[in-house]
Amino acid sequence: MVGSKVAIVLLQRDGEAGTPLVFDIASIEKLRSIGVAGILTGTLPSATQQNAFLSVPLRLMAEEALWLVEKQLGYLVHGGGVVHTAAEAVKAEDMKEARNELERSFEAQREFKRQQHLEKLRRLGVKAENSSGTETDYSRLLESSLFIETCDSSALISQRQREFDKPEIQARLAQQLRTGCKCKGDFHVYKALREQGYFLSPGSRFGGRFIAYPGDPLRYHSHMTVQPAMDYRRDPLDLLQVVSGGRLGTGVKKLWVVGGVKDDYDSTDAESGRVSFFSVEWAGFG
Amino acid sequence: MDNQHIIKLVRNNLVHQQLWDDVEEAKLEDTDAWVLRGLPPHKLSNDDPQLDHEWILPIELSQYKPGKLTLELMDKIFSELKCRRVTLGIVNDDGTVVYYFIYKGLHKPKRN
Fold first, then answer.
1. Residues of A in contact with B44 (CB under 8 A)
2. In whole angstroms, how far apart are CA A108 and each of A104, A105, A112, A132?
3. Residues A123 and A188 in one domain
4. Are residues A276 and A195 in the same domain?
5. Residues of A in contact with B40 (CB under 8 A)
6. Which ranges carry the TSEN34 N-terminal domain (chain A) (predicted)?
């Protein structure tokens, strides 16, 4: 079970709650299948200003990372130190093993190419010259066409990362991440919407806390801009926000949604009972 | 909720500017809020099955002091009216009224 959990790297600077990032492509695929899209942020040093075709790492919202930890679907890993400790732990025999591994891969490639070459000669009806042991033009060509495979992810690092998946470490890192959230109620709003099957992404483009999609964002337009959580009993609805948000939302075909969080709610029940949602749109007149 | 002083203003706006019919005032039991009920001149949303009476909650846009409309209060109004949506009639201090639908729960955007 531990192996299938997603490692979420929490990149922290001093005194910061941290940024949750996912580097592994298989993990990103898994996250998407369970309804967490995130934002791809990786770019090339030579094309830093391009923003259309971004790559790993995937950046998650704090609420997303906390939800994944709570549902036992992911675990937090502290910072970039893992890379250093993994690199320092490499021994001489590991290096030797890596070189042997590379040599085995070369041998397999040579064998495959030799087979293909013989097959080709046979098809053309040319008799293969028996030149084992001597260096021919062909064997020189073959040597220069061998590939060195570069792995997408490091076995050494993922092994180190798994050491973080212990309840006490997870509780501490999750607490650090939680202190960085501006509004505690937003996590309940996030959970309530996830329970109803919505994909959520950051909402600043439309002036909200979240944007909610009814399915994968590549297939659907978003339906709602979700506002920062309100206290169900105490916070009054700001009508100037209703007017500006509702007007903008109607213009971009989205409902302006507020959620009120009941702070006296029994936490063992489903989240949808804790949060009471209302959807606002312009009435079309006045 | 104290909104009796603006009920006439919103009523007049509905009847004379928006040309609604059949507009009546009512006071809610649970929340002491005044509401209006009336029939619009045409369907308000393409998603409505037919032209029907609407509930309007007149409320003051208070820019300099905190408002009074909490989500709990909204829930109480919905449970007393037993309706799909309530239209907020938001009154500015210059006499303009703007109208916003508020639905209970999550709702799909209307079709154009």
1. 283-285
2. 6, 5, 6, 17
3. no
4. yes
5. 285
6. 17-78
The pTM of the full predicted model, rounded to 2 decimals, is 0.85
**Which residues of chain B neighbour A258 with C-beta distances below 8 Å?**
71
Using alpha carbons, select from A118, A145, A141, A162 the residue that is nearest to residue A3. A162
- Domain that includes residue B79, residue range: 3-44+52-103
- Least confident window among A52-56, A194-198, B63-67: B63-67
**Domain region containing A260:** 183-285
Q: At B74, is the secondary structure helix, strand, or coil? A: helix
Residues A193 and A272 in one domain: yes
- Count how many domains chain B has: 1
> What CA–CA distance (Å, rounded) separates B5 from B3?
6
How large is the average pLDDT for residues A245-252? 90
Kindly state the DSSP code that residue B70 receives in the 8-state scheme: B
CA distance A206 to chain B (A): 15
- Domain assignment present for residue A274? The answer is yes
Paired tokens of A32: 């998407």
Q: Is residue B31 part of a domain?
A: yes
DSSP A97-139: HHHHHHHHHHHHHHHHHHHHHHHHHHHHTPPPP--TTS--HHH
Q: Which of A212, A244, A256 is nearest to B101 (CA)?
A: A256
Cα–Cα distance for residue pair A223/A239, rounded to 1 Å: 21
In-domain check, residue A106: yes
A222 and A138 share a domain? no
**A265 in contact with chain B, both atoms CB, cutoff 8 A:** no
Q: Which of A84, A166, A184, A221 is catalytic?
A: A221
Give the pLDDT confidence of A203-229 residue by residue, as tens digits. Answer: 998 999 999 999 999 999 999 999 999
Q: How many domains does chain A have?
A: 2
Residue A271 DSSP one-character state: G
Flag whether A140 is in a domain: yes
Asked, for residue B108, whether it belongs to a domain, the answer is no
CA angle B67, B73, B77 (to 5 degrees): 125
Residue A18 belongs to a domain: no
pLDDT band at A186 (very low <50, low <70, confident <90, very high): very high
